[in-house]
Amino acid sequence: MAATLHRLARTVGVALAVATCGISSLSVAAAATPPEQKIVGGERAKIADHPYTVFLTNNSGFQFCGGTIAAANKIVTAAHCVKGKTADSIKVVAGREDKQASDGTTAAVSKVWVHPQYTTATAGFDVAVLTLGSNLTQKAAPLASSADADLYKEGANSTVLGWGTTSSGGAASRYLLKVDVPVTSDATCKAAYSQYSNTSMVCAGLPEGGKDSCQGDSGGPMIGGGKLIGVVSWGEGCAAPKKPGVYARVAAYHDVLQEQIKS
Ligand code: ARG
């Protein structure tokens, strides 16, 4: 499968980071996408302005995904980031903008909850909740709910944050980056991706491309109206024209997430 994708990606000259959508797809993306397809026309962000933004590392300190503080000891991330991982193989880093710095807090994970219906990112349900062994002091982000339909309208502003790659297949960012991307209509996203589901996903990006999340940003926050409206999930390449980023639609999972966050 990976080899097939690899060959296909080479052939058509696009990165197909769709099926696994994790760091394991990096080799696929690396072979295929021209340099300078930047994550995205992003810029540096201050952690103090987005204190709910965290990154996930393995026990070697390697950053593999992002996440969002939803309560003092609860992190919302993508299912594809943590499925199959044990709690003791994941650390959550909060309050740190520069991955090479040592400020902020590194928290242990005591429980990994993955949406029970999750299979692959392109099939939806790409949400997970980590329970921490200790409480963080950084501010949490509220989850969007069914009352927040306005935040999902075409053209609504969203800000996506992460430490992911700054070129498709390239190196991850040392510093927290952010990019502002408009929410696309369901029709636009469906036209881009047959797998798009308007009940479990939301897309954002510009028709001409140039602004997007990318590999390693997965699990991280998509913020609209001050709420968590999406979780970085998947896309074809990064920032390509007519290929918006796809995010887990948080409002659709509000209740099931909130249940995990309260417990
Ligand atoms: N699946 C990627 C990850 O695991 C995120 C991809 C987002 N892609 C995009 N074009 N927005 O980090």
Structure report:
- The structure is a single chain.
- With 263 residues, the protein is an alpha+beta fold.
- It has one domain: Thrombin, subunit H (Beta Barrel), CATH 2.40.10.10.
- The protein has helices at residues 2-12, 26-32, 79-82, 186-192, 254-262, and strands spanning 43-44, 53-57, 63-71, 74-77, 91-94, 105-114, 128-132, 157-162, 177-182, 201-204, 221-224, 227-234, 245-249.
- The chain has a seven-stranded antiparallel sheet with strand order 1-9-8-11-12-13-10, with no helix packed on it. It has a six-stranded antiparallel β-barrel with strand order 2-3-4-7-6-5.
- α1 packs parallel to α2.
- The radius of gyration is 16 Å and the shape is globular.
- The N and C termini lie far apart (38 Å).
- Bound molecules: arginine.
- Residues 17, 21-22, 164, 212-218, 232, 234-235, 238, 245 line the site of arginine.
